[in-house]
Amino acid sequence: MYAELKENHPHGTREYPFCEYHMRYFPHAFQIPVHWHDEMEIIYVRKGPLMVEIDGQKFKGEDGSAFIVSPGVLHMMSAPDTPVDYFTFIFPLEFISFQTKDALEDEVFFPLRNHTRGFRPEVADRNLLGQLIPILDELVEENGKNGTHRQIQVRIRLLQMMDMLVEYSQLEELTRNASGELEKEILLYIQDNYHDNIGLAELSEHFHLSEKYMSRLFSERFHMTLTQYVNYVRLRYARHLLESTDLSVTEIAMKSGYQNVSYFIRRFSSAMGESPLRYRNGKTRRDKKNKIKNSKNDVC
């Protein structure tokens, strides 16, 4: 199962560019495929195990662990067939920077945005972790409130965590990761061409790599085959069309790169647990049911 390549859609809103995802109650194993975005991300594991991979480094997130994903860094998460409960907080650094030309901007925020400095992915220092966890819990609580006061309190918590990370020397210089840049280019190419037939031979030729190397790259770094990844991108786009348009299932299948509608329905049903039409109808009912609730207490 895949949950939610370069994420081009903004997280949060213009008025409140902070997004909280609470992931729990999965009845099966799941994987969020490798992706990246320009915002900073904090992963807070309340109940593990959660398998986390950040910039090629693999970690096992146990109960009460935390990870930092710096802007522009490839990362992915997965969990075995056991209960897991974790949060991700995603926000642009501009949300907590002061937009002034000073030492803090020069030494911390600008290098983070420019990908020349980054935080160590795992919060391994027990003293630091012990101070961060209560603030993460407060962050969840404050983000569940409403109004301008919520934004102030959320910013305060994020700045407290940034202060602790810097104080505990978690910020370090980054070296250019040539393999990481290649991986991003490959994922962007798939994202731009998923509606066409993308095979191992074509992809390898485009990037001047051998098919054996490309196949091993997907297996070792993306933890899935090329076909599985292309299907993931296609199904994600199909889900978007089901949620945002009135196009027929046949039209959506074609626009998503599937020439066989029956095959599309089987793939979608396998990934989402229900047919495209049931997913659309269920999404409409859930939206109507939660409209008032979400308008009062929307965390993303």
From TrEMBL:
Keywords of the record: DNA-binding, Transcription, Transcription regulation
Bias (Basic residues) occurs at: 280-294
- Note the PROSITE patterns from the entry: HTH_ARAC_FAMILY_1, HTH_ARAC_FAMILY_2
Which domain of life does the protein's organism represent? Bacteria
**Which GO MF terms are attached to this record?**
DNA-binding transcription factor activity; sequence-specific DNA binding
Q: Where is this region: Disordered?
A: 276-300
Domain HTH araC/xylS-type positions: 184-282
Task: Establish whether keyword Endoplasmic reticulum is in the entry.
Answer: no
- Which Gene3D superfamilies did the record assign? Homeodomain-like (1.10.10.60), Jelly Rolls (2.60.120.10)
SUPFAM superfamilies hit by this protein: Homeodomain-like (SSF46689), Regulatory protein AraC (SSF51215)
PANTHER family per the UniProt record, alphabetical: ARAC-FAMILY TRANSCRIPTIONAL REGULATOR (PTHR43280), HTH-TYPE TRANSCRIPTIONAL REGULATOR EXSA (PTHR43280:SF2)
Q: What is this protein called?
A: AraC family transcriptional regulator
